[in-house]
Amino acid sequence: MHNDAGRIRELDAVRGFALCGILVVNIWQLTDMSAVCAPGEMAPLRHLLSVLFEGRFFPIFSFLFGLSFALFLDSAAQRTARPRLILIRRLVALGVLGLIHHQFQPGEALLPYALVGVLILLPAASLPRSAVLVAGLAGTIGVAVTLGGGFGLVPGLFLLGLAAARYGVAETLDERGWQLALVFALALPAAVFTGLWEYRTPYLDLLVSTAPPVAGLLGALAYLTGLLLILRTEAGLVLSEVLEPMGRMALTNYLGATVLILLAEPRLGLSGSEKYGVLLGLAAAIIAFQAITSWIWLRIFRYGPLEWLWRCVTWWQLVPARRVPEPIRYG
Q1: Does residue 125 register a pLDDT over 80?
Q2: What's the CA gap between 198 and 208, in Å, rounded?
Q3: How many CA atoms lie within 13 A of 331 on its CB side?
Q4: Averaged over 235-262, what is the pLDDT?
Q5: Other CB atoms within 10 Å distance of the CB of residue 109
Q6: What is the rounded distance in angstroms from the CA atom of residue 213 to the CA atom of residue 205?
Q7: If you average pLDDT over each of 140-154, 285-299, 315-329, which comes out highest?
Q8: Rounded to an integer, what distance in angstroms lies between the CA atom of residue 211 and that of residue 33?
Q9: What is the pLDDT of residue 299?
Q10: Are 223 and 55 in contact (CB under 8 A)?
């Protein structure tokens, strides 16, 4: 299922979905909310939100970055004789945005994404797809069970996304319903089991336990395949209409959310608090705002504002932004 400019609608919807989940975690990280209600005891709602959100959506977003990287490289190869140079410029521009964003949100993702893209994804794009898949699996699983989660998972997840593109998964999603259902059927109980393992792990032990990264990856897999199955239903079509515009403007919405959080925090008093109910309200408000503004913006323009700027720098030329009205046909 594709939309204009050859975009794959399911991937845009999944990207928008991942942004929503990342937002919840970013709010408590950016505002430095308290995680504990007593020494060694995690705040109950924060504990639950950690198991539902933390480490679940970041892997989806990272996987999609690797996949989109491969799709863009293939597309660029059809337009220019030097697609890698175009891609390097694209990654450098992303790194500059990430460096600026880092001043307001330490621990943001764009700068690491750009660095890993240049150092690992670009060289790996020349490897056989089987080698990329093996390296991706080894990197993701190996890091999860030995070093923990976080940004250490990014190289492996990028490679898995690259491998998925090379195996044609993105273009053949419509034909993979039974495969998605099978993976979901296996991932869901595994995600629930490891999620309970993480939930029952004492707070002080979480820092050295493999429970969070393993549970996070399995939760991400269950969320990803579950959403792709839902998008095949009538209800999923409605959900997709909400998520797709957000996903198409992922860069604008990711950076824009930081601005909205920083503006709201002094009024809500989240810093150092345990107001996780307020956090959820703020997240819902930001998601609703971004869903509406993304939908309206893309009715007028082909790209989000930062996506347009990124594209202009990538191709080093002004790219038409406004949509051209389709001619009225009579008869």
Answers
A1: yes
A2: 12
A3: 0
A4: 96
A5: 20
A6: 13
A7: 285-299
A8: 23
A9: 96
A10: no
DSSP string, 99-118: HHHHTTSTT-SHHHHHHHII
Q: What is the pLDDT of residue 330?
A: 47
3-state secondary structure of 2: strand
Print burial letters for 202-214: b (CB count within 10 Å at least 16), e (below 16): ebeebeebbbbbb
Instruction: State whether residue 36 is helix, strand or coil.
Output: strand
Mean pLDDT across the stretch 256-277?
95
Exposed e or buried b per residue across 304-327, where buried means at least 16 C-beta atoms within 10 angstroms of its C-beta: bebbbbbbebbeeeeeebeeeeee
Are the C-beta atoms of residues 129 and 50 closer than 8 Å to each other?
no
- Number of Cβ within 10 Å of residue 189's Cβ equals 11
User: What is the pLDDT of the chain when averaged over all its residues?
Assistant: 93
Say if CB 187 and CB 221 are below 8 A apart: yes
User: CA torsion, points 68, 117, 159, 110, in degrees to nearest 10?
Assistant: -70
- Structure confidence by residue, pLDDT tens digits, 157-215: 999 999 999 999 998 998 999 999 999 999 999 999 999 999 999 988 888 899 999 99
DSSP state of 154: H
Q: Residue type at 208?
A: V
Cα–Cα distances in angstroms (integers) from residue 83 to residues 34, 70, 121, in the given order: 46, 11, 14
Predicted pLDDT of residue 7: 75
Q: How far apart are CA 298 and CA 249, in angstroms?
A: 9
N-to-C CA span, the chain = 29
For residue 326, the model assigns a pLDDT of 55
